[in-house]
Amino acid sequence: MRDHLVPIVMGLVAVGLFFAFPYDLAFLTRVLVTIVLVLSVDLVLGYAGIPTLGQAAMFGTGAYAAGLFAIHVWGDPLAGLVVGAVAGAAIALVSGLVLMRTRGLTVIMLTIAVAAILHEIANRARDLTGGADGLRGIRMQPVLGLWEFDFIGRTGYWYALVVVIVVYVGLSILTRSSFGLGLRGIHDSPERMRAIGAPVYWRLVTAYTIGGGIAGIAGALNAQITQLVSLEGFAFSLSAEALIMLILGGTGRLVGAVIGVALFMTVHHFAAANDPFNWLFVIGAMVLVVVFFLPQGIISLPGILLRHLRGGRDADRA
Amino acid sequence: MQTGLEVRGLSKNFGGLVVSEDISFDLPSGARKALIGPNGAGKSTFANLVTGILRPSSGTIRFDGSDIGHLDEAARVRLGIAKTFQVTTLFRRLTVRENLRLGIIERERRGFGLFRRADRDAAQEAEIDGLLSDFEMTDLADVPVENLAYGQQRLVELALTLSLKPRVLLLDEPAAGVPSSEVHLISDAIARLPEDLAVLIIEHDMDLVFRVATSIVVLVQGRILVEGTPAEVAADARVRELYLGGGHG
After folding, report:
1. What is the pLDDT of chain A when averaged over all its residues?
2. A60: number of CA atoms within 13 Å, CB side?
3. Edge-to-edge strands of the sheet including B223-228?
């Protein structure tokens, strides 16, 4: 029961938000899509310890794959998600075979490079991708043949919510499995992992590929709901913001990804609306405070408060 | 066919620097051998050549009669050649129980299991409980390793290595960094090792070496100086000179 507490609470909050902010569905949907992307970063960086600043490579690939699939092959949303996942996983697998042979800063640089290369390919291949104008003309069929995507974005919101919950539950099964425990082992000590007989390289390639598939799902979801794919999907800033959101929430715990995205995007939303010129200042200050005072992220806050409360009581007794 | 490790003519050089030279050495099942020698004699290099962390420049390493020279470190561990590190190397943020759980999972080749919860296997958890009680660490089962004293971490590393059910065990300075009051925990644990396990212990602590080893190999400047029983080695004039100074110090 406790395992499923987070997705249940998340679902209930999302239902509440749907009715509380019926005119902000586009924003709320963007939050949901971003949660999927940041969950994929959490698997790769938070669990497996692979430093990445290029998760947008798989996000963008998933978005273009799903967009092109919808235009040229079939407009079914679920089939498009599968195509996005496979495309993201394929890019992660091919690049991961090289990336996972390197360590530390080299990995970071190479992840950035992969996204930059794909960005340029999408930019040049105008006939296929629309280049800087973006990929237009995506028309989605109803979800499961039942729910039409509507102008207000109700269907898109529910659709994204279901995808988020499925991905979350899938990842919580994965991270509790033998494989997940092994990833935490690699994160702590690759040397020790090899010394108990584990093929560390293939574990990392597998984790990176699964993470790529999930980022691909996020990209596909975004393409289907906004009915537009742009070069922004490959942007460095997307990878970087995903990382910042994860660090804000707390790495190595799935709920950290959810909280980090919700906090970052909410603050961003209101700060940018109130002061379109200086909103970055607010974001920067928030990141500084968290990194200095809560290096384990927002999710560590309840534990720290609890310890202070208990510590205070113990001191009273003494 | 001989069972156990068989090393023939093993050499390793880094550029012009020769760190291991023509080492031939047997470690049959059930052996209790110690490898000693002054600092820089190439003891750790030898251990790294056997476990596959380093590749030899020449020579062969056989295990149960077949050449394992081409296998990487993890593959050799899966064959049953395990080691403990000179500096404790563990999954520091995982609990003692999780550390041992990983050892068993990898031994049973279940490390790519994506769906089943890692902690829902009754036989596996019972085996962990057994290891914990062997090492008198039942109370520490759910403590993250990084919160343990160094001597305790040493024992966790030994327990983790044994969870692999190895057939050859290399102990690289198991007593290094352990307070002398706790060294007996290590030597007791070594004394309790399965009888058919082949053990090579690399150690500076001569008390420990003479307590556990039935055969001692002395390595000097990458070469084997002498190999024999503890009594023979203790009586050897060259070894006495090496360890008692002989006026060079």
Report:
1. 93
2. 27
3. B81-84, B168-172, B198-202, B32-36, B215-220, B223-228
- Token reading at A122: 């999408």
Contact A178, A185 (CB under 8 A): no
A33 pLDDT band, cuts 50/70/90, is very high
CA-CA distance, A182 to A195, in Å (whole number)? 13
Closest chain B residue by Cα to residue A204: B112
CB atoms within 10 A of CB B155: 25
Question: Mean of the pLDDT values across residues A196-206?
Answer: 97
- What DSSP line would sit under B170-206, residue for residue? EEESTTTT--GGGHHHHHHHHHTS-TT-EEEEE-S-H
CATH number of B4-91+164-244: 3.40.50.300
Q: Locate tokens 């390639």: which residue?
A: A205
Six-digit token string for A100: 């996972």
Residue A56's domain comprises 2-317
For position B248, what pLDDT does the model report? 44
Min distance A189 CA to chain B CA atoms (Å): 6
- The ipTM, to two decimals, is 0.90
| Structural domain total, chain A | 1
Measured between CA atoms, the residue of chain A closest to residue B108 is: A197
- Probe site for chain A from B68, B87, B112, B156 (most A CB atoms < 10 A): B112
Mean pLDDT of A191-203: 96
Tell me which chain A residues have a C-beta less than 8 angstroms from the C-beta of B107: 196-197
Least Cα separation, residue A196 to chain B (angstroms): 6
Which residue, among B114, B142, B121, has the nearest Cα to A43 in the 3D structure? B114
Q: What is the pLDDT of residue B153?
A: 93
pLDDT at residue B103 greater than cutoff 70: yes
How deeply is A141 buried, as exposed, middle or buried, from its count of CB atoms within 10 A (0-12, 13-18, 19+)? middle
- Contacts from A274-279 at CB under 8 Å and sequence distance 24+? none
Query: Which helix H or strand E contains B60, and what residues bound it?
Result: strand B58-63
Contact between A41 and A55 (Cβ < 8 Å): yes
The pLDDT of residue B249 is above 60: no
**Is there a contact between A189 and B103 if contact means CB atoms under 8 Å apart?**
no
Query: B-chain residues within 8 Å CB-CB of A188?
Result: 90-94
